[in-house]
Design brief:
There is one protein chain. With about 80 residues, the chain is mostly beta strands. It is built from one helix and four strands. It has a single domain, classed as Thrombin, subunit H (Beta Barrel), CATH 2.40.10.10. Helix content is about 10%, strand content about 30%. It has a four-stranded antiparallel sheet with strand order 1-4-3-2, with no helix packed on it. It holds the Pfam family Trypsin. One of its GO terms (molecular function) is serine-type endopeptidase activity.
Length: about 80
């Protein structure tokens, strides 16, 4: 989902340009033991590219359909 949609859920100051939000649709989201895990996508040639690191989820739980937040790796590539 867009950062604007995510910010509407979590409020100001939480979502930044360093955040990627996933919708949580279908009860799929970050759970407590997932922090630090990868967010990735599969390229057209079948390789996986990591674009995020699991960071936070709704205080009401991880299977409730609420957005989850990931740290956007691209913004830290120079540091990494």
């Amino acid at each position: 989902i867009s950062n604007a949609e995510c910010s509407a859920f979590y409020g100001g100051g939480i979502i930044t340009a360093n955040t990627i939000c996933s919708s949580g649709a279908g009860g799929k989201g970050i759970c407590p033991s997932d922090n630090g895990g990868p967010m990735s996508y599969m390229t057209t040639d079948g390789n996986f590219v990591q674009i995020g690191v699991a960071s936070f989820f709704s205080s009401t739980g991880c299977e409730n359909g609420h957005p989850s937040g990931f740290t956007r790796i691209r913004n830290y590539l120079d540091w990494i």
